[in-house]
Amino acid sequence: MIDIRMKQEDLDRVILAMRNIEKSEESVLKTALNNTATRVRNRLVKRASKVYAGTAPAGILGRSKIIKASVSKVKATIFFKSKQPGIEAHKVSMFFRSRTTFFNGKRVKFPIYATQFAKSEMKLLEGYSMAFCVRFKSGKIAIVSRNADKKLKRLMGSSDRSMVGNEKVYGAEEEKIADILHEQVEKCLNKALGGK
Questions:
Q1: 20, 48, 65, 132: which one has the fewest Cβ atoms less than 10 Å from its Cβ?
Q2: 130, 49, 118: which is closest to 94 by C-alpha?
Q3: Nearest residue to 36 (alpha-carbon basis) of 164, 176, 178, 181
Q4: What's the Cα-to-Cα distance from 86 to each of 12, 40, 77, 142, rounded to whole Å?
Q5: Which pLDDT band, with edges at 50, 70 and 90, does 66 fall under?
Q6: pLDDT band at residue 153, thresholds of 50, 70 and 90?
Q7: Region 178-184: what's the mean pLDDT?
């Protein structure tokens, strides 16, 4: 969840500028915040699809939601929600079912390498030395490992919220978000004051 709000000094400047205008300052702020939220969501989704690999970031835009600002509530909120995808939705070295192979009476382990990031090397799934690929009766394919109870545990990737909130995505866009908000406030204020 990302909240987009005005700094108090910007809010005071808008109120002061609109003293003699019929249109309310909340209406100007509402428009600026809603325009900013739409642009910010698009920027973050675009950045996430560049940073993350595989099919996981493909539908972030469709799974996100903007709760728009109103005259009574001068705050816009962007929600990024999804189920956490399996690690197989990212870049994985081994993505097929393999027969159990034995050598000298012992099971041969096939290491699985994976990464969620587009521009990074795949790394061994540490702690999951017995990770393997399975196809369930439902037809879904997953990378799993066995825990101490001999039960299968699916290895998961990042959710939309985690991908967008990552330092490589949100952290890289944080300054630009502030610039977009400032630009939108100026634009809406000029329009309300009779400019273009």
A1: 20
A2: 130
A3: 181
A4: 47, 27, 27, 7
A5: very high
A6: confident
A7: 89
Residue holding tokens 């500028």?
A: 17
For the record, the structure tokens of 94 come out as: 């081994």
Please say whether the beta carbons of 32 and 177 come within 8 A.
Answer: no
Q: Which amino acid is at 1?
A: M
Task: Show contacts of 66-70: CB within 8 Å, 24+ apart.
Answer: 66/34, 66/37, 66/38, 66/41, 68/30, 68/33, 68/34, 68/37, 69/29, 69/30, 69/33, 69/34, 69/37, 70/30
Structural tokens at position 98: 């393999």
For 8-31, letters b (16+ CB in 10 Å) and e give: eebbebbeeebeeeeeebbebbbb
pLDDT-derived band at 180 (thresholds 50, 70, 90) equals: very high
Count of beta carbons in the 10 Å neighbourhood of residue 144: 20
Q: How far apart are the first and last CA of the chain?
A: 32
Nearest to 177 by CA among 6, 58, 15: 6
